[in-house]
Design goal:
This protein is of the alpha/beta class. It contains 20 helices and 32 strands. Among the domains are: 145 residues, Rossmann fold (3-Layer(aba) Sandwich); 127 residues, GMP Synthetase, Chain A, domain 3. 32% of the residues lie in helices and 24% in strands. An eight-stranded mixed beta sheet has the order 12-11-8-6-7-14-15-23, sandwiched between helices. Strands 5-4-17-16-18-19-20 form a seven-stranded mixed beta sheet, with helices on both faces. The longest helix has 18 residues. The relative contact order is 0.10. The structure holds adenosine-5'-monophosphate-propyl ester. Adenosine-5'-monophosphate-propyl ester binds next to helix 12, strand 20, strand 26 and strand 27.
């Protein structure tokens, strides 16, 4: 973290919702003094309830916390229905393809589209409240229609990122026991068509008994295999449905969606979010962190397949009645100025992206932003991984012209929305630090015994009070939920939420995230479990043992480094073949986001005498750090030096 402090832009602060640190502290104090009262007021003010709630927070079955019990709502009313009185003809979505085609969808049009799709799900596919629907879609408006159509009828959507492989998609369909998959023929990337439907066909070719139907949106119009009785073309049947559909009244705690994410052990987990707490959070953070106003145009560059896309492309901007930009393609098509050109053209006011993208665009086109009029920008956000001060400064100066607030937002799939972040009109920022917790969030950096670590020392980042948008459970596995999040740290004898991240608090209370403390790695802001990758590599017939760790990468944040012990030493030729085969396996089982950056074939792995692989040592070796751990307790301490030699070679 850099020690320079940037005060908020005065002119911006004057107009902002939270104008200074006094106001921020006042809100924190209110939440501290009356925690449930604070959230009660927010929820009553911000949510348009069908029936009001009677209980703010029920802790009786902690850590299965329940919020706003007794309340009934439908989040699509929050995102669409209630806007029709005041902004029916305002652009809800501005979509752009790589070729520059645009679709502008007003709130009223979006409302009708969602209703038609909701009717289609109900009438044609028999989707009912509580059923799971998997969405495997590109970045097209139909992805939003489908998410909201599910929400409208009380079905639970589970969006699977379009870069995941057939195997990964199958795992998710099966785990969720989804009834229907909504996909597209394919889409375009770097100016060329790519396909999604064949991946769905492959996923459904084995197992997936629950899924009997597939709905296909035509996007790139490339030929696809059509399975009669199972497959339906959206474009051919959607207009037969009515554009009116009553929203299903949902209990506050009814699940809104599942989103699968990697953990340190086993298969990906279906993070379950519920409607009321989540939508409150989406709106609360849009107001406080992005300070979105009525005429603002908001652009989050994430994919809808990740939580950032859920909260800050779809639910947050629409709950605010803002205009959300959706861009189908890559940042560098046809050139590295693409995003800046779009910001200029659409007069974007808040822009939200990942440090990986900032680093890449900085490297590829440092002067590009200056070629465009970016004066509409007010707030620039980052998310997904730590941002290094260099990238931070370029973002501030080259993109924000030294004028925009930079909000480095720390949060997770499990938190639903921002947790630790600057407020753009109030917080003096330090590059590299996510600064302070939002009002109402109790973030603490603790040691294993639940004590606060001293200033400047690294500890475990915990959230010590429940919050409305927290993960409710892991789909179908409440035991794993308890163990994964409430199993490691207790404070005053009570289990508290442990994020899996490390953090440091400085003498002024600024929080800096130091990265994962568990076996999860973060590649370009994508979370990957090393255990998952190892399990796949271990399937190769010539792999005897494998350990995977993260290694710092100047653009991607972290790269994947695999240490492999092979069964029969076949020499260099065989190793080269194996590298290709291992990467093929990874792409098949997960997708190309998990491709290995480097493989080292080693004679053995560092193990304790009881046979446990000491990954910490491998992590240090991969980072080229000095080994500070005691290696004398290893089964064979000499292996460390050998692995070090092989790593640098
Ligand atoms: O390690 C943290 C990192 O991303 C993890 C959460 O990943 P995921 O659930 O995929 O959600 C990503 C988008 C919210 C965290 O445990 N992370 C996220 N934001 C930051 C971050 N690390 C440092 N600084 C951030 N601003």
């Amino acid at each position: 973290m850099s020690s320079i402090i940037y005060e908020p832009n005065r002119a911006f602060s004057k107009e902002a919702r939270i104008k200074n640190m006094c106001e921020y502290k006042e809100l924190c104090l209110q939440a501290e003094e009356d925690y449930t009262g604070y959230w009660e007021k927010m929820a009553r003010e911000k949510i348009d309830w069908i029936e009001p709630f009677h209980t703010v927070l029920d802790e009786s079955e902690a850590p299965f916390y329940k919020w706003f019990l007794g309340g009934k709502l439908n989040v699509t009313h929050q995102c669409l229905g209630r806007h029709l009185k005041v902004r029916k003809n305002k652009a809800a979505i501005i979509w752009e393809s790589e070729f520059g085609d645009k679709r502008i969808i007003t709130y009223l049009q979006l409302y009708y589209r969602v209703n038609r799709m909701a009717n289609l799900l109900k009438n044609r596919f028999g989707v009912k409240k509580g059923d799971r629907v998997v969405l495997y879609l590109p970045m097209i408006p139909e992805a939003v229609f489908a998410m909201l159509a599910c929400a409208k009828i009380g079905a639970i959507h589970s969006v699977v990122f379009g870069g995941f492989s057939a195997e990964a998609l199958r795992d998710r369909i099966e785990d969720a026991q989804a009834k229907l998959v909504i996909t597209a023929d394919g889409a375009f990337r770097r100016g060329k068509p790519y396909m999604l439907k064949p991946v769905v066909d492959e996923a459904l070719s084995v197992g997936c008994e629950s899924c009997k139907k597939v709905l296909i949106v035509q996007r790139n119009r490339e030929p696809i295999n059509y399975v009669r009785g199972r497959d339906f073309i959206y474009n051919e049947i959607i207009m037969q449905e009515s554009q009116h559909c009553d929203p299903e009244p949902m209990d506050s705690e009814d699940p809104l969606f599942l989103l699968y994410t990697s953990g340190s052990t086993g298969k990906p987990k279906g993070v379950q979010h519920s409607g009321a707490g989540y939508i409150l959070w989406a709106q609360y953070t849009m107001e406080h962190v992005f300070d979105v106003k009525e005429n603002d145009t908001f652009w989050c560059t994430a994919d809808v397949g990740w939580i950032t896309g859920h909260t800050y492309i779809v639910y947050g901007p629409l709950a605010m009645g803002a205009t959300t930009i959706i861009y189908e393609g890559v940042a560098t098509y046809p050139d590295v100025g693409r995003w800046w050109k779009m910001i200029e053209e659409h007069r974007v006011n808040q822009f939200y992206t990942a440090p990986t993208a900032i680093r890449m665009l900085h490297k590829e086109g440092p002067d590009e932003p200056q070629k465009h009029d970016l004066s509409s920008l007010k707030v620039l956000g980052t998310v997904g991984e730590p941002i290094n001060p260099d990238a931070w400064h370029w973002y501030r100066e080259a993109v924000g012209n030294g004028r925009c607030a930079i909000v480095d937002t720390w949060w997770q799939t499990e938190t639903g929305g921002h947790m630790i972040t600057p407020l753009p009109g109030a917080t003096p920022t330090k590059p590299g630090s996510a600064t302070f917790a939002l009002p109402g969030i109790k973030a603490e950096v603790l040691d294993n015994d639940g004590n606060q670590v001293p200033v400047g020392e690294k500890g475990l980042l915990c959230i010590t009070k429940p919050w409305p948008s927290m993960i409710r459970t892991i789909w179908g596995d409440p035991k794993r939920f308890k163990k994964a999040y409430f199993g490691d740290v207790k404070k005053d004898g009570k289990p508290v939420y442990f994020s899996g991240d490390g953090a440091i608090v400085d003498e002024q209370g600024y929080i800096t995230i130091t990265g994962r403390t568990d076996d999860v790695i973060n590649v370009s802001g994508h979370r990957l479990g090393t255990a998952e990758i190892e399990a796949i590599l271990a399937h190769h017939e010539n792999v005897a043992e494998v350990a995977v760790v993260g290694r710092p990468d100047p653009i991607k944040g972290e790269g994947i480094f695999a240490y492999i012990v092979i069964k029969n030493e076949g020499g260099i030729g065989e190793e080269i073949n194996m590298i290709q085969e291992l990467n093929k396996l990874i792409v098949k089982e997960i997708g190309s986001i998990a491709k290995l950056d480097a493989i080292r074939f080693v004679p053995a792995l560092p193990k304790t005498r009881s046979g446990k692989i000491v990954r910490r040592i491998l992590r240090s070796i991969a980072k080229n750090e000095e080994i500070t751990q005691d290696i004398s307790t290893l089964e064979d301490p000499s292996i460390v030096e050998k692995i070090q030699e092989l790593t640098v070679s």
